[in-house]
């Protein structure tokens, strides 16, 4: 089947069909034009002979003998080897007859106005004309019939068609061969793409298909392939790092559990010692459970399985509730909490509460004692922006771009994190914000770090806005 054949075969067949179609159209056109040309030449020759005959018959004098008239007509009409002529008087008598091949059919002896006609017998083709003429001395009109034998023309066209058929077959074979060569050569870049794609593996994702030897028509496809390879490479690197980070983060609690258990089992202990060990193990298990829950949340976010509820949320009330939660820790460290502005968004209250809690927790962790944390809410016609600002050491630009990646920490010395910090908070925050069609970014300069969260403005009637 054509649908299952290779691209080279398809292109070869298309080229062959295109060449055959052009040759067939050209051959038919040449044949029709040639036949028209020969027909015009025959009709012109018949018209000229007819006019000359009419002239001879009309200028004869009363004293001209019939024999002399026939000699003039024979000199005019008999010299043409393929011309047959017959002239009849008004009463049906034969004034002149030069039938070289066959008799003219009676149906063509009835004349119109220079009536042209064609006739074919068993082996010959004829083209003729019948006309009424004035014969000097005859009270009524006579009839002139001229007929050309055009059998040689028919033989010429038969030979032409035969050679054209042979040439068409040869051209089809040659075009198929050339089409295969052209298609094979033209598709060589595709073979190169196939080889590169086939050789791709986890260790060679950095390879790219070169653009230099590729035709312009394929460069867009190659750019798409290279872009896909770049995305695969980035995803694989992130997945590899992610797997390594998971193992790294889980190693500490598992190691603690093993150490505590082995120490307790080295000798017989009282019930209190066993309880203390179980409580210690429980803390590590809780940490591992939180980490696994966070990982499941991020996995759902990556696959678009997080579907937030759509309720109206007043951000200023949500932030004020979180300020109450962190107030005691802030007072102990002399940190002042400030809230300014208001705004309403549509989303899931628990998810947005978790995202803002992660931002504030991060700010509390890195804000110096005696400093302040401020939250500003601004609502425009298109977006509601929440900005959290805190003092402290600046974040380098190269870290600010990766700070929302999983398990990423700007300080390599703090890879293990704290007991409850696995480096997933900001990654979860970004997933929550993106699930609400928003965006989050970080800017750090002049000793101040700012986290900006932009949500789309919810659509609601004006009276509803006034009610809220």
Automatic annotation (TrEMBL):
Residues 184-237 form the HAMP domain. It is found in: Cell inner membrane. Residues 245-459 form the Histidine kinase domain. One of its GO terms (molecular function) is protein histidine kinase activity. It holds the Pfam family HATPase_c. It catalyses: ATP + protein L-histidine = ADP + protein N-phospho-L-histidine. The keyword Disulfide bond does not apply. It is a multi-pass membrane protein. Its EC number is 2.7.13.3. Its main location: membrane. The chain crosses the membrane at residues 12-33, 163-183. Keywords: ATP-binding, Cell inner membrane, Cell membrane, Kinase, Membrane, Nucleotide-binding, Phosphoprotein, Transferase, Transmembrane, Transmembrane helix, Two-component regulatory system. The keyword Transmembrane helix applies. InterPro entries: CusS-like_sensor, CztS_silS_copS, HAMP_dom, HATPase_C_sf, HATPase_dom, His_kinase_dom, HisK_dim/P_dom, HisK_dim/P_sf. Member of a two-component regulatory system. This is Sensor protein. The lineage of its organism: Bacteria, Pseudomonadati, Pseudomonadota, Gammaproteobacteria, Pseudomonadales.
